[in-house]
Amino acid sequence: MSKVYDILPDAAARALINNDQYLEMYARSVNDPEGFWAEQAEKFVTWFKKWDKVQDNDYFEGRIRWFEGAKVNVSYNCLDRHLETRGDQTAIIWEGDSPDEAKHITYRQLHEEVSRLANALKNLGVKRGDRVCIYLPMIPEAAASMLACTRIGAIHSVVFGGFSPDALRDRIQDSDCQVVITSDESMRGGRRVPLKANVDKALESCPNVRTSIVVKRTGGNVAWKEGRDVWYHEQLAAASPDCPAEEMDAEDPLFTLYTSGSTGKPKGVLHSTGGYLLFTAMTHKYIFDYHDGDVYWCTADVGWVTGHSYIVYGPLANGATTLMFEGVPTYPDAGRFWQVVDKHQVNIFYTAPTAIRSLMGQGEELVKKTSRSSLRLLGSVGEPINPEAWEWYYNVVGEGRCPIVDTWWQTETGGILITPLPGATKLKPGSATRPFFGVVPALVSNEGEVLEGATEGNLVITRAWPSQMRTIYGDHQRFIDTYLKTYPGTYFTGDGARRDEDGYYWITGRVDDVINVSGHRMGTAEVESALVLHESVAEAAVVGYPHDIKGQGIYAYVTLMVGVEPSEALRKELVQLVRKEIGPIASPDVIQWAPGLPKTRSGKIMRRILRKIAANEIDALGDTSTLADPTVVQDLIENRAVK
Ligand code: PRX
User: Do 337 and 351 form a contact (C-beta atoms < 8 A)?
Assistant: First the structure.
């Protein structure tokens, strides 16, 4: 039996939703979805025109549509409608990489910046439906750029600043972006990262990009291409601050965001306008129990979906004060998170298990040096949180005063689907607990049979919700094949889960070839493709293995060309190659030289065996009788990295 934490009385007293309300609203959301969602849509979103139809969804045909016929604008909802009541309230608190740098930006100021930038984009020829790539550090201009795109109906594609020029190039090309917004450099942990130089490199192979808008962040030296490169501040100064928000259709595309799958290149997950806006606003309010005046901080990067939905769109739609942190948790020291909490009196704090585990490893002293008395609620996202880290977060960081919401979701889901509500849900460390309104999860066997009661299986969602991805940019068939074909009639998450006797869900991790390294999602196939680019590599197989801090580490088995001898220098070259192709986050933790890989007689690599060897679970290799050459396994076991 797992430990159960009762609802904290203080959390219950102020909560927007108690357990009876949760049960009643959940039942209504499932039994009368039309009525339920229409009501929520009225409550959370300001529409220029109401919808003709609440939903039109068919998982068999791959059609997902919400609020068709409605007219709406995201930037209007995040900015304009707040001006009258909270124009002078802080929208964004920016905390720089250095503790000496911070600023507050009000809704009025943000509205002006976004309007000017939107006009600047128009002046540069950006039209409704055009794609704009955003490759920026965690600075307010990133949020402004996203909002400016939504203001004129351009589709943004934010690329995480840690991706290499090659990875950036692939993403720019895939969605045919014609404008890139970047900065001279970014600052992380006291070090400068050459963002513009990365863009310059990527653009060598992106002839369709005609403009690169550059934010001056550090003032560092940059190369300049006349006719293509323009300064952000100069564009803003020259543009009018008056830019009416475009009336978009609810189903117009809002943004693409690239994420990894088990095969092929990263795919451009496409989200649309009305449903996404509603669901991110609603989840942000109810799950984080956001009340007016609260200071809310999500530590994710805007380059990931968590940054889109829970730094920018959900919070700003709700008129919240959202904190944006440029730096890293360990700079200048590993107490930074807690110092920032005190400095800005943060009430709600949302981070990833990998950060908690690494800070936990630094001991309690740095935490205890701070007060953290402003904290009221803690959140976790990105990977399963192990009970030990959960307890530390709860007892040491939150001193037993703050509920933890362990929120399960994905780039594809747009918003949180399985989560506790702080005033409604008893907590079990390590469980994401129960579904959010309108979300109907199910567990199915590998054969597709729906499993009832307390059991374990593949996690699917049986009906559409408003912020579900609509398609993969440019490849609707791949969308259908990846998510809707595996268990027909359902959305397949790629995750496994257990459901306990109380109906609580425990996510057990990916069941496909996707790995989760420090909360960064990666396809093993992507890393393999990078490795085999090296002329000395004949074959590579990559798996995840348990890693104390990162959750999963990257373990690569590499077979060299005949005649090539393994060496430390070659190992370094291979790591360098992966960093160049994808970025530092994809660096293999382990490279094991493999004279052969375990394959079936039909030539398929048996990854199950490679995963077990990497995890040092030698006794659990399972059936190896179908291997073409069983001696291969013996060699891999003897030379494994973790013993
Ligand atoms: O395996 C699940 C894990 O992260 C995957 C989604 O990754 P990404 O699209 O990058 O989005 C991450 C942030 C929403 C999921 O398939 N995951 C995310 N949150 C949790 C989680 N696993 C367990 N518990 C969570 N709370």
Answer: yes
- Residue whose C-alpha is closest to residue 398's, from 376, 427, 420, 418: 376
pTM: 0.96
User: DSSP alpha helices (H): ranges in 333-446?
Assistant: 336-344, 353-360, 365-368, 387-392
Binding site feature residues for ATP: 382-384, 406-411, 495, 510, 521
pLDDT reported for residue 1 = 64
Assess whether the previous peptide bond of 332 is cis (omega < 30° from 0).
yes
Q: How far is the CA of 510 from the centre of ligand 1 (A)?
A: 9
Beta strands in 211-266 (DSSP E): 211-215, 229-231, 248-249, 253-259
Note the helical H segments in 518-565: 524-531
The span from the CA of 469 to the CA of 471, in Å, is 6
Q: Rounded to whole angstroms, how far apart are CA atoms 58 and 64?
A: 6
Residues forming the annotated binding site? Answer: 188-191, 306, 382-384, 406-411, 495, 510, 518, 521, 532, 534, 537, 579
Tens-digit pLDDT profile for residues 272-298 = 999 999 999 999 999 999 999 999 999
Q: What is the DSSP letter of 618?
A: G
10 Å CB burial of residue 354 (0-12, 13-18, 19+) is buried
The tokens of 197 are what? 């130089």
CA-to-CA distance for 291 and 14, rounded, in angstroms? 9
In a mutational test of the pocket of ligand 1, which residue from 257, 507, 510, 517 has the highest number of ligand atoms less than 8 Å from its CB? 507
322/465 Cα distance (integer angstroms):
25
430 lines ligand 1 (CB under 6 A): no
Q: What is the pLDDT of residues 367-409, one digit of tens each?
A: 999 999 999 999 999 999 999 999 999 999 999 999 999 999 9
From ligand 1's centre to the CA of 222, what distance in Å? Answer: 37
What's the average model confidence in pLDDT over 253-264? 92
Would the CB of 218 count as within 6 Å of ligand 1? no
Q: Give me the DSSP letters along 453-501.
A: SSEEEEEEE-S--TT---EETT-HHHHIIIIITTTTTSEEEEEEEEE-T
- Helices marked H in 105-158 — which ranges? 107-123, 140-152
Tell me, in angstroms, the distance from the centre of ligand 1 to residue 95's CA. 26
**Ligand 1 pocket residue status of 217, Cβ below 6 Å:** no
pLDDT category, 629, cuts 50, 70, 90?
A: confident
Q: What domains does the chain contain, in order, with CATH numbers?
A: 9-498 (3.40.50.12780), 518-639 (3.30.300.30)
- How many whole angstroms from 106 Cα to the centroid of ligand 1? 32
How close are the terminal C-alpha atoms of the chain, in Å?
Answer: 31
